[in-house]
Every structure is written in C-alpha cells, then in structure tokens.
Specification:
By secondary structure, this protein is α+β, with helices and mostly antiparallel strands. The protein is 20% helix and 38% strand. It is globular.
C-alpha cells in the first residue's frame, strides 16, 4: 500500500512540475498534431534585439527568451519562429547594459502562413 501512495505522490508531483513549467516558459511553440505557421520578428529599431518572448495567449506569462543561445536580431534583420497556428503573445527587447526597452503584441498565426511583426 505504501508503494502505491509513494507512486501516486510522485506522479502528482510530476504533473505539478509540468504545469508550472508551461506557466514559466510560455508553453511549447509547436503543439503536437496541430498545423503550424510562422512568426517573423523584424527589428526596425536602431538597437539590437537580444530577447524575444513568445507564449500562447492562454499562458499566464510571456515565458523565457526564445532566441537560441548567442543569437540576436540586429537592426534591419529578422528571425523566424515556427509555431502552432493560433493566438500568441510576443514581446521583444534590447538594451541589457543601457536600460531595457521592449515592445509587445498579441497576434494570430494561421496555418501555413507567415505573420510578420516588427520592433520599432
């Protein structure tokens, strides 16, 4: 009986951690079995974008930086994220050493289409 209780508590703990991870990270960009589209983040500002946070609209936070380690978006450049079709909240920012500026927006991504969004 005690083994069963321990297994049940361990399983409940894993579910709790998994749900918290989704809240902290903003959830997966691609959800299994769903059609995908893309978000092109264009940097129209004079500063280098060092962080792009993307989360499902249903998530409670923007989550973590989605740019791969060492990747930035320089002025005039863009970076494409493949995501499941649906509603996404996106925030991008720059200025780690000289203050921090950001822009954010809620966008709708359609299957097999690219949705462009620019930082000014």
């Amino acid at each position: 009986m005690m083994k069963f209780v321990r297994a049940a508590l361990a399983g409940a703990g894993l579910l709790l951690v998994a749900s918290c991870a989704s809240m902290v990270t903003g959830g997966p960009l691609i959800r299994p079995g769903e059609p995908v589209g893309a978000i092109d983040v264009y940097n129209g500002s004079p500063q280098t974008v060092t962080a792009v946070l993307i989360s499902a609209c249903s998530a409670s936070t923007y989550g973590l930086n989605r740019l791969p380690e060492g990747v930035v978006i320089r002025p005039g450049q863009s970076y494409r994220f493949t995501v499941s079709a649906g509603c996404w909240d996106i925030m991008a920012g720059h200025g780690i050493t000289d203050g921090y500026a950001s822009a954010n927006r809620r966008i709708q991504v359609h299957a097999n289409q690219v949705t462009a969004w620019g930082v000014r």
